[in-house]
Amino acid sequence: MNIKKLTLSVVAALAFVGVVSAQQSKTDESVEFRPHWNLQLQGGIASTIGESSSFGDMISPAIFVNAGYKFHHAWGLRLGLGGWQGRGVVVSPEMDYSFKFIQGNADITLDLTSLIGGFNHRRVCSVYAFAGLGVLHGFDNDEATAINAKLPASPNHLEYLWDSKTFVAGRFGAGVDFRASERVSIGLEANANILSDHFNSKKAGNCDWQINMLAGVTVRLGKNHQPSAAYQAKVDEALAIAEAEKAARIAAEKRAAEEKAAAEAKAAAEKAAAEKAEAERLAAEKAAAEQRHAALAEEHSDNIFFRIGSAHIRQSEAEKIDALVEWMLSNDEFRVSIVGYADKETGSAATNAKLSERRAQNVKAALLKAGIAEERIDIAHKGDTVQPFEEPSKNRVVICTLE
Q1: Terminus of the chain with fewer CB atoms < 10 Å: N or C?
Q2: pLDDT tens by residue, 274-325
Q3: Which segments of 140-224 are extended strands (E)?
Q4: Which residues does residue 111 pair with via DSSP β-bridges, in sequence order?
Q5: Separation CA 314–CA 190 (nearest Å)
Q6: 338 contacts 363 by C-beta, under 8 angstroms
Q7: C-alpha distances in angstroms, 287 versus 291, 292, 332?
């Protein structure tokens, strides 16, 4: 897509936005934005960016006549014709020269104040920005030609010297308008035109810039507002809605009273059912948790067996204690009950009582050494008063029961 087609597409899109998005005035919602034309006359100073030691040497007069069409409260188009004079300078020896040009512009304008604050048909001050394209035709470059004839070879030579030449410029700028009356406004504007390196006849390896500082007067051709159909439609709609709401409110109040009684009865029944279901659920969860706890306790409980007459923990039994420790360290909600026993068929009752106690104490000591907190250990000993197993050799044991 070339630049011409792209520009036309953007203009068409912005025009569509203007048609479909009427904007009511911020100071009077009974009126809305109305598309309109305006004429603008601007005059001021211009400067062709150069290398002169004096800024004043580069200043030239400038004048523009513009016609604009504002199709949206923020967006518009502007076509302009103007120009006058550009300037250049040779550095060594320093000599300045002037040339003439005429310029045609096509800009898209954006009213920043309306964009941010909305349309106000009585706004006193508006700030705007714009961007667009320009076509400049330069002529009467005799001063540069005469200077170039006197200059030595490069770098002072004007390598891009022309007699008459047409340039395409990209341009942008900003301005401010002050409302003087219903149709007239006074404005200030600054804009910049970006041109090829050939514009001032000098080769610089970068773009040339033509800067304009302008003051002007703008006359609007027609009003910028009209009666708002949307506002009137909104008023009519509000009246109709108010009548409908009144009738609906009376019917709704009657229906609400009936529904309230039914809803209260239903809510009471649902609450009772929910409370019952919640109680049953909690009881089931508690029972399941207790069941799981008991199953895990049973699964990881273990018996530590000893040799006859001994309270020494053998390696094979120490491994059981290690497994028990590992489980308890990972499951701190469990505690362990340690009960020591002795074989009734071996030794006296007094000896077996002391032996079962030592066995239980040794298992407790192993647990403590492995990092199990003492408050998680319950300890007891039965001697030979209780025989948990039928086989006598198995009663030489400490039973570790997780709880």
Answers
A1: N
A2: 888 888 888 777 777 667 777 777 777 889 999 999 999 999 898 999 999 9
A3: 165-179, 184-195, 208-221
A4: 128
A5: 99
A6: yes
A7: 6, 9, 20
Q: What angle do CA 365, 366, 367 make, to 5 degrees?
A: 90
Residue 72's CB is within 10 A of a number of other CB atoms, namely: 23
Nearest to 72, CA basis, from 26, 32, 29, 104: 32
3-state secondary structure of 213: strand
Contact 188, 175 (CB under 8 A): yes
Cβ atoms within 10 Å of 357's Cβ, excluding its own: 18
Residue type for position 232: Q
pLDDT class of 188 with cuts at 50, 70, 90: very high
Q: What does pTM read for this prediction?
A: 0.55
pLDDT single digits (tens) 236-284: 888 889 889 888 889 888 888 888 888 888 888 888 888 888 888 887 7
3-state secondary structure of 178: strand
The CA-based angle 239-243-245, given to 5 degrees, is 110
pLDDT band of residue 21 (cuts 50, 70, 90) is very low
Backbone angles phi, psi at 19, to 5 degrees: -70, -45
SS3 content of the chain, % helix, strand, coil (to 5): 40, 35, 25
Element (H, E) at 271: helix 229-300
N-to-C CA span, the chain = 82
305 near 397, Cβ under 8 Å?
A: yes
Please report the pLDDT score of residue 155 as a whole number.
57
Q: How far apart are CA 70 and CA 36, in angstroms?
A: 6
Rounded to whole angstroms, the Cα distance separating 164 from 202 reads 15
CB 133 within 8 Å of CB 170: yes
Q: 140 — phi, psi (to 5°)?
A: 55, 55
Q: Are strands 397-402 and 95-111 parallel, antiparallel or unpaired?
A: unpaired
Q: What mean pLDDT is predicted for residues 335-345? A: 93
